[in-house]
């Protein structure tokens, strides 16, 4: 039995059913329709106060029907996949086309296979709580052994497997098994009356081979290091200053400052600050930025997106030029270009939208140490918790959990808990040095544009001439 | 909402859990129905309709505890899921603090109707819903050449929740909600395309005030044109009632039992102490009929009671559920506030109008914050730093928009510098937090 046949069986539908549903969806008009079936199982294990004593399992099942008419979208979903319920959903979605009057019949079915970017070595079904819990306990014990100021540890392992069956009116029929594994920990440390908290996580599209002793060691070391430094840190004096963004998690800058503004739904509506910048030089020639759905086991990778388009690597900025927006089928049609595999959704309850995957900047030629040395007074940041952007105004922010002041070219006082704000186009143009140490941060990054999607980000260390750093005034 | 397979699913769940040896069980059944219609400029852009249901189980067996959920409620499949859930729970380490709540603390019924559900929910024609969204756009389309794009959305949902536990608690809630919102973008000189939005929300369709939604969104977008960064310094801060809850949520989070027990709260050990300015009162108005958030019981079945949260700056309560009560030794209260109402101390029943205009005049000069852009609060220390957008004002008069700035400080210090609290909370919100005015706050600009 092929994977597509197994999926058809799982959802209790035949290829004839799929075609009939699509025809119903397009019965009132519209150029395109798709069906997205999803079955997901999520298992959680939680450690608090030294014991693995919380567990959860969650099943979610359903299918969504979408009808596209021009740039209009009708969407309906059902949690019951009988033909009757699915036909009702198809009829509800079809209402979008009432104003259009155009109609294109569904094409013949063409099963498609895609390259697998997340091969599972050992499925989660092969490992039960008894084999997973010791890793979480080991994480707890390791953290307590690293610093006697550790007071509490909260750890959580979440693993999920999502089965997807996709069919559209162009005839594409495909299926996918999407794993995800996340281990996250929060550490509370106390020194005298002072309490600080820090966290660390790793997340990959992997089976149970995800759990290794090396992974536990890596997360434990990082969580303790990130928390311990906070006892030495203070809130800096705020204001405009040069900012050195350390390699890895600083990719949040790309996600917030430019990534969202490059998502083509905002641009086709002319509301992004980058709406009229396609093909133009927007930053230094040393900068190339990629959104990539093909990084093996990466949290943001997709074999095919939620519109049946192959996962791919999209160069958004090439040597300083804005070369591509991130497209779903609707925006690609508007711009008369090919979709870029960025049509993603949180679940069958949502219609797809242009979303990022793994967004990173390629290496430059500078050395991080030289970049830091070049700054007389500024700040170095490499540990973040969250960010946000205003698409039209271009103002973006990210919250710095910890970093260091730079004084006369050297890292000095640790700093913490400050927000950094800048303006996307200005900040991008203000990147004056790019180091050669790019890597992707494999923390549990999640993007919240209307719906939640797993993503990741990465960057080499860069120097931005001027951003506004939060802080106290003298 | 009609409960079709609800009884059957709950019966299977209870029987199966009991048969498999669960010592106690809580079942929460939820059913929702929602629709939304988005009009972009002059045509329908998105239409969404759906219904859904789910069964959430909390299982207590052999001193162990697990949580499970599924939306697959067919007989055999549901039975198998529960059998597997109990097997999973048995593999955990014992947790002696887990149990159902003390029965005497649970809601016993008999409360008056809290007016949370519009019985006419299903009678509203689709055409009317689309027309409302179109009317919002029509208010501003073609009215200002700087307008680039406008989206208005009508949305509604109906929620039915039933909670049952094995010691006999049974509680049911039904709620409807109607919203309308407009978002628009404008462009003046330069590349920036500032956005403006407005929304209204109500529990009853006839109470939904959609007139003027589009106009307010456009006004809020246009007034942001030409925003600038100003000099870093200490400024008085007035925070609009649309976003003022952002400054209350760190307090509510810090009062949460899990954060208290995990030593991850800047209010740990402060129960009964005066921590904030005596001007501050936050009251949980849990039983206000016709208000978002009003309820007689929480997700454990614990009865809610109108009560002070912060009384003249003193911490009056933590939010302690059964589990964290047993872990901390603190008495059970409630898992979270229902309808927090923030006022000047002693003015909860006050009738004298005190709105934005009054607060701006009272503050004299400063920054009027209309939006927060990212940022966060350290839950252990209360230190915060948020991006902001808003306006610079002098002598109570708004002069020009500001952007690309941060506000930074500590939640305890901030609320000790509270200067005035309006009495204009937005009724469309679950938390009733009015316009707020603070003295001398650190802003970071150039």
Overall shape of chain A: it is globular
Question: What is the strand tally of chain A?
Answer: 23
Uncertain spans of chain A, ≥5 residues at pLDDT below 50? none
Protein structure class of chain B: alpha+beta
Which percent range describes the beta-strand content of chain A? 35-45%
Give, in order, the helices and strands of chain B.
Answer: HEEEHHEEEHEHHEEEHEHEEEHEE
**CATH H-tier superfamily of the largest domain in chain B:** PmbA/TldD superfamily
User: How many domains, in number, for the residues of chain B?
Assistant: 2
Spatial extent as radius of gyration of chain B: 24 Å
Strand content of chain B: 35-45%
In short:
The complex is a heterodimer of chains A (474) and B (446). By secondary structure, chain A is of the alpha+beta class.
Q: Your description of this structure?
A:
The complex is a heterodimer of chains A (474) and B (446). In chain A, 21% of the residues lie in helices and 39% in strands. Chain A has 474 residues and is of the alpha+beta class. In chain A, the strands form five sheets. In chain A, strands 1, 2, 3, 4, 5, 6 and 7 form a seven-stranded mixed beta sheet that branches. In chain A, strand 2 and strand 3 form a beta hairpin. In chain A, helix 2 (15-25) packs parallel to helix 3 (83-94). Chain A is globular and about 70 Å long. Chain B is an alpha+beta fold and 446 residues long. Chain B has two domains: 5-222, 2-Layer Sandwich (PmbA/TldD fold), CATH 3.30.2290.10; 233-444, no CATH class. Chain B has nine helices and 16 strands. Chain B has helices at 6-19, 75-90, 126-138, 213-222, 249-254, 257-261, 322-328, 356-363, 411-416; strands at residues 24-40, 43-61, 64-70, 147-165, 170-186, 195-202, 233-239, 280-284, 307-311, 314-315, 340-344, 366-377, 383-394, 397-410, 418-421, 436-444. The termini of chain B are far apart. The mean pLDDT of chain B is 94. The chains are: A alpha+beta (474), B alpha+beta (446). At the A-B interface, strand 2, strand 3, helix 3, helix 4 and strand 5 of A face strand 2, strand 3, helix 2, strand 12 and strand 13 of B.
